[in-house]
Recover the amino acids of this structure.
C-alpha cells in the first residue's frame, strides 16, 4: 500500500501527467463540440473512443519517466534505480505502479465522460458508460505494459497515438483480414460504440473479454520480462 | 557550421532507426492497404519523430552547452541546424514518397505521378522542420512528439473543414514556427 502511495506521488509530480489529464478532458469534449450538429446513435461515445489520447500519455509516461536518464550534471542516473532500491521486489513495484495508473485513469475517465456527455446531451446508458471507463482504463494499462517492454516512451507513444486517428491503422487492417477485428482497440470500442463499419459482429461482452485478454496477456509478459531483465 | 550540425545528426543512432522504421512501415502499409501514397498519412509520424529528436537530442545530456560554446551565435546555429536537417530529410523523404507509388506501379501498373511524389517529399520535409521548431520550443522529446501527433492525427481530422489545404497550412506555419523558435531560442537560457 505504501508503494502505491509512493507511485501516486510520483505520478502527481510529473508535469506530463497533468498534461495528460488536461488532454483527457479537452480532447473528447473539443471533438464533441465540433461535431455537435451531426446526429447519430453514437454521439458522445464516438468522441470518447477517439479521445483516449490522455490516458495513452498517462500510461506511457508513468513508465518512461523511470527510464529517462538525467543530464550528466545531475548524475546521469535514472529514477528506476532509486525506485527499485526502495521497493526491491520487482513484481510488487510493477503492481503498485499499474495500480497507481488505474487509480488515476478511472477518475479521469469518469470526468471526461461526464464533461463530454454534458456537451452532447444524449440519453445516458449505464452499461455503455461503464464500457467507456473500462476502455479508457484498459488503454492506459496497454500503453503501460508496452512501455515496460520497450523501456522507452517514443515508440509506444507514436504507434498508439497514430492509431487513435479517425481512420486507425487497425481499422484499415480489418479490410485485409477479419482477424484484425480482434485487436484490443477494435474489440474494445464494441463495449460502447454500436455502429462500427466492419462485417464482423462482436457483442459488447465479447469485446470486453477480448480486450481484457489482451491487457492481461501484455501485463503478464511485461511482468515476466521486468522480473528477469537487468533494470 | 552546417557540416558540424550534419555530422551530429548523422552520428545519432536514433536518426537511422527512425528513418529505417518509417520506410519499413511505409512499405508494409503499402502492401496492406495497397493505394499509392496513402500510407504516408500514417508514416509521416516517423518524420515528426525525426524532427523533434534532431533538436531535442541537444537537451538530453549537456550537448547544448558544447554546441553553444562552439557556435555562440544562437540564430546562425539554429539556422545551420535546420539546414542540416533539411539536407538530411529531403533525400529520405524522397525515398519514402517514392516507395509507395513504385510498389503500386510494380503490383498494379498504375503510373507514378512525378508531381505527386514531389508534393509528398516537400510535405514531409516541411513537416520535419516544423517538428524541429516545436522541439526547440519544448526541449522535451516526448512532449513534442505527443503534442504534434495529437494535432496531426487526433485534432486535424476534426478541424479540417475550418482550415485550408494541408499543404497550405504547412507552408504558412513552417516559417512562423521557425521564427518563433528562433526568437525564443535567442532570449532563453540554454
Amino acid at each position: 500500500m505504501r508503494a502505491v502511495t509512493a507511485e501516486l506521488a510520483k505520478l502527481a509530480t510529473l508535469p506530463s501527467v497533468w498534461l495528460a489529464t488536461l488532454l483527457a478532458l479537452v480532447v473528447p469534449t473539443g471533438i464533441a463540440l465540433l461535431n455537435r450538429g451531426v446526429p447519430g446513435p453514437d454521439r458522445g461515445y464516438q468522441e470518447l473512443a477517439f479521445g483516449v489520447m490522455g490516458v495513452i500519455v498517462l500510461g506511457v509516461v508513468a513508465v518512461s519517466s523511470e527510464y529517462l536518464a538525467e543530464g550528466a550534471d545531475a548524475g546521469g542516473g535514472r529514477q528506476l534505480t532509486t525506485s527499485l532500491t526502495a521497493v526491491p521486489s520487482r513484481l510488487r513495484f510493477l503492481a503498485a505502479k499499474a495500480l497507481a495508473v488505474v487509480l488515476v485513469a478511472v477518475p479521469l475517465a469518469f470526468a471526461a465522460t461526464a464533461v463530454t456527455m454534458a456537451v452532447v446531451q444524449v440519453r445516458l446508458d449505464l452499461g455503455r458508460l461503464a464500457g467507456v471507463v473500462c476502455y479508457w482504463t484498459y488503454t492506459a494499462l496497454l500503453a503501460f505494459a508496452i512501455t515496460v517492454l520497450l523501456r522507452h516512451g517514443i515508440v509506444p507513444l507514436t504507434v498508439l497515438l497514430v492509431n487513435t486517428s479517425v481512420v486507425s491503422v487497425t481499422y484499415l487492417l480489418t479490410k485485409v483480414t477479419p482477424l484484425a477485428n480482434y485487436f484490443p482497440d477494435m474489440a474494445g470500442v464494441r463495449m460502447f460504440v454500436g455502429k462500427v463499419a466492419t462485417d464482423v459482429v462482436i457483442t459488447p461482452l465479447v469485446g470486453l473479454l477480448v480486450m481484457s485478454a489482451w491487457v492481461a496477456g501484455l501485463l503478464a509478459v511485461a511482468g515476466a520480462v521486468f522480473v528477469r531483465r537487468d533494470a | 557550421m552546417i557540416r558540424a550540425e550534419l555530422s551530429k545528426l548523422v552520428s545519432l543512432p536514433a536518426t537511422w532507426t527512425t528513418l529505417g522504421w518509417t520506410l519499413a512501415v511505409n512499405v508494409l502499409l503499402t502492401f496492406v492497404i495497397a493505394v499509392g501514397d496513402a500510407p504516408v498519412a500514417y508514416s509521416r509520424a516517423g518524420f515528426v519523430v525525426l524532427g523533434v529528436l534532431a533538436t531535442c537530442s541537444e537537451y538530453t545530456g549537456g550537448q547544448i552547452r558544447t554546441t553553444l560554446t562552439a557556435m555562440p551565435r544562437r540564430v546562425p546555429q539554429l539556422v545551420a541546424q535546420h539546414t542540416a536537417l533539411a539536407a538530411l530529410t529531403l533525400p529520405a523523404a524522397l525515398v519514402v514518397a517514392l516507395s509507395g507509388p513504385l510498389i503500386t506501379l510494380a503490383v498494379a501498373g498504375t503510373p507514378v505521378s512525378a508531381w505527386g511524389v514531389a508534393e509528398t517529399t516537400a510535405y514531409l520535409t516541411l513537416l520535419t522542420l516544423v517538428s524541429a521548431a516545436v522541439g526547440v520550443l519544448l526541449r522535451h522529446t516526448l512532449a513534442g512528439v505527443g503534442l504534434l501527433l495529437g494535432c496531426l492525427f487526433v485534432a486535424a481530422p476534426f478541424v479540417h473543414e475550418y482550415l485550408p489545404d494541408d499543404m497550405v497550412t504547412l507552408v504558412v506555419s513552417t516559417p512562423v514556427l521557425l521564427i518563433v523558435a528562433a526568437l525564443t531560442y535567442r532570449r532563453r537560457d540554454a
User: Anything to note?
Assistant: Residues 90-120 of chain A form the longest helix (31 residues). The interface with chain B takes residues 16, 19, 23, 27, 30-31, 34-35, 50-51, 53, 57, 60-61, 64, 69, 71-73, 76, 153-154, 157-158, 161-162, 164-166, 169, 172-173, 175-176 of chain A (CB under 8 Å).
